[in-house]
Recover the amino acids of this structure.
């Protein structure tokens, strides 16, 4: 959602600036220790960034100029220039960073530290740790409300979404969800918060105003074992009408109608699909397929899988920018 | 029903900030240390805190979650000898503890479960004996330890997937070795492997480790495995730990060794990293200063079952927790890539089994090719139609 929203801003900026901007897709390869860069128009690999250990979570600054990567085994967040691919000074992350989310303003960065049961808040300008917020066991998923007032962390063994006030760094609400929550994503209007539960096999739809689960999205695919339906990455279109849920070893992305929270389609992608990202214009959805070493490209208008492109070993996260 | 549970959940969490009342959950781990011979390898000497370290981590994990739920978790750890075990169990029951994890052999486990009766739920975190899930099952006895049938099925599936279907089965001379060998025979029949040769390795007593003992072993093991029928793999059933560790590299024919040595079915391994397991490993090692063993993981799961049920029942009592754990609504996430649930016919926790060899995890069973109409995990162990449990 965040990507898509900025995508719109960027798209209009692109019109103003003329055709100089190019779209690029950055994919973190957990096993390959690299970030693969693809041209957003041709979907061809144009560069590979090396020199990091176990890259997982990946995101971009709102202006698309900086790419942030959770280098889990380096215990820091690596930063790259999206045009030159030059490495910029790293950010402290706390141990074993896996996923993070950037404040809509571009600063600060909220990082989940799985080993220490904390969320680390880092100023991306001064590179200082602003706060460490104690949360549940094995913090993982990170989301932020569109207005930037609440950051959400999911803890995998505690099975909760912790809603944290971004000004006081205090937990204001805890919402119980199903087993092993992996990802938190607000709808663009901020009215709903979606939290995927990998082992529970559901996506909880939370009303943040009530801090209540108001609906649970469940999944069923003929011929696929129920235990293989493991929701991980979640993204919502900029118009808020459709949500996409990556279903891990089920090798499918579910399309969800946000008016009814019913699954309308299952799209077959690569193996062990984990994370998702929209193109800046919101026309395409990219999926990382960890066990087939590729990304799938989905046409958002038609919900057709257009093609898959080989990237590095065990792709984990993906972000697309104009730069 | 589940939905309203969630609504209630968040309502309670909100109000919990102001509520002074805290629910306390008291559990116990009763470990019965029987005197026995030393293991073949000094690397396998049990650490003093075996099982208890898993309890400490499980209790800490529950407490972290509990801090958001106004729930407190404490776990008492007790070491008993076989002759004091029953008295220790009575003490725990008299103290009002109703969640008791037992680490003991099969006979002691049944005895302790019978003493507990309807006063407590007993969780077996050690014994793999099939009869505890069969003819000796109890209504108040759950198992986080896997059964011999699950372990042997896990290995059998992989060997059959590899097309290593001709087995040379070597069993020890202790009753538990015989039981394990029977489980391998059953697994071979179930998955279409053939036991082409069977031998019993007699335990003649004596020290398991001696200075320069390797000299004799290098003569003894090849001779023992000589002139066996043509086979693909050696399968060792050595629960007592007498000989299997000496089989690899000493067999007459150059064949892989599996079972109690070589490629082994385990619930846990310090090299296991998939499905977030690294987080468990680092958390455990940081707190305990050593890698986790199977027993630690099995005790951790037994306490996490309580934590999970306490969370989901919103501070439920013994009856509420007991009913929830055995209901369809219960599941446990335990770094195995899928939800773990209890079999209602014998109280066994369904779980994937790691196949490990020395420094790495080689594979995880069930193998994808073995299908099941209910849960693929039920391809491992004794399924509903075959159970001998009449609890």
């Amino acid at each position: 959602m965040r990507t898509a929203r900025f995508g719109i801003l960027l798209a209009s900026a692109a019109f103003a600036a003329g055709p100089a901007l190019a779209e690029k897709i950055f994919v973190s390869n957990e096993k390959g220790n690299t970030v693969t860069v693809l041209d957003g128009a041709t979907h061809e690999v144009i560069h590979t960034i090396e020199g990091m250990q176990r890259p997982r979570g990946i995101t971009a600054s709102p202006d698309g100029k900086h790419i942030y990567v959770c280098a889990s085994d380096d215990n820091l967040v690596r930063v790259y220039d999206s045009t030159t691919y030059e490495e910029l000074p790293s950010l402290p992350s706390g141990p074993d960073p896996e996923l993070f989310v950037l404040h809509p303003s571009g600063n600060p960065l909220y990082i989940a530290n799985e080993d220490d049961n904390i969320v680390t808040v880092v100023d991306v300008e001064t590179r200082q740790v602003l706060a460490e917020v104690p949360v549940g066991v094995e913090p993982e998923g990170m989301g932020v409300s569109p207005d930037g007032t609440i950051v959400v962390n999911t803890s995998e063994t505690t099975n909760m979404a912790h809603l944290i006030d971004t000004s006081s760094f205090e937990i204001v609400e805890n919402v119980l969800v199903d087993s092993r929550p992996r990802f938190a994503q607000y709808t663009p209007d901020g009215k709903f918060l979606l939290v995927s539960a990998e082992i529970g096999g559901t996506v909880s739809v939370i009303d943040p105003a009530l801090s209540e689960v108001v609906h649970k999205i469940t999944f069923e695919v003929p011929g696929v074992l129920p235990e293989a339906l493991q929701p991980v990455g979640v993204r919502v279109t900029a118009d808020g009408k459709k949500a996409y849920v990556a279903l891990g070893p089920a090798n499918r992305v579910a399309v969800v109608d946000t008016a009814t929270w019913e699954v309308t389609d299952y799209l077959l992608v690569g193996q062990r699909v984990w994370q998702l990202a929209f193109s800046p214009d919101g026309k395409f959805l990219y999926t990382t397929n960890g066990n087939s070493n590729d990304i799938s490209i989905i046409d958002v208008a038609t919900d057709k899988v257009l093609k898959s492109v080989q990237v590095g070993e065990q792709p984990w996260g993906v972000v697309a920018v104009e730069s | 029903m589940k939905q309203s549970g969630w609504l209630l959940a968040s309502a309670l969490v909100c109000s919990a900030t102001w509520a002074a009342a805290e629910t306390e959950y008291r559990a116990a781990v009763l470990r019965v240390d029987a005197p026995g011979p030393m293991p073949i390898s000094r690397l396998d000497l049990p650490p003093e805190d075996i099982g208890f370290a898993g309890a400490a981590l499980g209790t800490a994990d529950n407490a972290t979650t509990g801090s958001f739920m106004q729930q407190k978790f404490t776990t008492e750890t007790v070491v008993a000898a076989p002759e004091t075990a029953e008295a220790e169990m009575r003490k725990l029951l008299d103290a009002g503890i109703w969640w008791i994890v037992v680490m003991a052999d099969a006979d002691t486990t049944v005895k302790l479960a019978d003493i507990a009766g309807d006063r407590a739920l007993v969780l077996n975190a050690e014994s793999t004996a099939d009869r505890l899930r069969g003819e000796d099952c109890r209504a108040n006895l759950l198992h986080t330890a896997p059964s011999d049938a699950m372990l042997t099925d896990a290995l059998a599936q992989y060997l059959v997937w590899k097309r290593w279907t001709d087995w040379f089965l070597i069993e020890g001379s202790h009753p538990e070795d015989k039981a394990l060998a029977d489980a391998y025979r059953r697994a071979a029949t179930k998955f279409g492997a053939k036991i082409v040769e069977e031998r019993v390795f007699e335990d003649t007593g004596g020290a398991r480790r001696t200075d320069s003992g390797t000299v004799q072993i290098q003569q003894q093991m090849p001779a023992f495995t000589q002139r066996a029928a043509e086979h693909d793999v050696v399968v060792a059933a050595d629960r007592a730990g007498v000989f299997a560790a000496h089989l690899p590299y000493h067999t007459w024919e150059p064949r892989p060794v599996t079972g109690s040595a070589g490629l082994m079915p385990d619930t846990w391994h310090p090299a296991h990293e998939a499905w977030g397991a690294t987080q468990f490993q680092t958390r455990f090692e940081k707190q305990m200063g050593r890698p986790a063993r199977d027993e630690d993981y099995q005790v951790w799961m037994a306490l996490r079952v309580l934590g999970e049920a306490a969370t989901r029942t919103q501070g439920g009592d013994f009856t509420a927790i007991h009913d929830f754990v055995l209901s369809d609504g219960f599941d446990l996430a335990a770094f195995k890539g899928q939800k773990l649930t209890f079999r209602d016919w014998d109280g066994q926790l369904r779980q994937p089994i790691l196949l490990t060899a020395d420094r790495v995890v080689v594979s995880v069973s069930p193998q994808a090719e073995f299908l099941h109409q209910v849960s693929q995990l039920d391809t491992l162990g004794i399924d509903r139609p075959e159970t001998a449990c009449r609890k």
Notes: Confidence is low (pLDDT under 50) at residues 1-18 of chain A.
